[in-house]
Amino acid sequence: MNNSTALNRTRVEGLLIRSIYIYDYDIRRLSDEQLLQRAWEIVRKCYNLRHYSLCRTAFELLLDMVEENRLITLGLPGTKQEVLFYLETKKQQTNIELDLEQFEDLLRVVNDEFNQINNLVYPNQPSSFQILRAEIKRLKVQDLINQIPLKKQELEQLINTVAEQLNRAERYILEKLLQENSRILQTNDNFNVERLNELKEVLSETLIQEELQTLLNKQSEIFYLAKHLENLQTE
């Protein structure tokens, strides 16, 4: 096979393999020319613009070769049925190649993002994933250590603000409400949710639901921050 024939084969084969996309259509009724036309319409959409002329050349070459029955000389399908069989045998290989290409693209993106993060932590210094992970973990632990006491102060201020609106009995119920919510968070058991709702209902006669929910949300936030800190420190 000379260089010209090899180039032609590559062009034709590329078009045939990409014609797999036509499997979304009912192609059993199409003639050879209609089949190839459908392939061209779809291939044209997925081809990069800079490959447009090559794709068009391959398509025109393919039409000519089908009409002149010259595909066989390249070892390629010559009829509609042979085209379909060829596509079916090539389909698995093509999908693997596409998956590999997508994986390589994803890997490039991940590496680029890693380098961007690394440059934030260690400007202009090469690093490894393990070193970067350890540094990010250290920074996160320090952030949580500083953040949790501030969140607790915010919760305490919220509790005091709400308590000012309550009488002595209602303050006792508020204390029970927070204890119940803490128990639910620690046990990860919603069995006592009904009891929690009953306490909220009693306090709703004095407080609006938004005030109560803000308290519970802040308490939950502190719990999960503390849990996150504990997990990081015990890794």
Automatic annotation (TrEMBL):
The keyword Coiled coil applies. Keywords: Coiled coil. Residues 100-213 form a coiled coil. The keyword Coiled coil applies. This is 12079_t:CDS:1. It comes from Cetraspora pellucida.
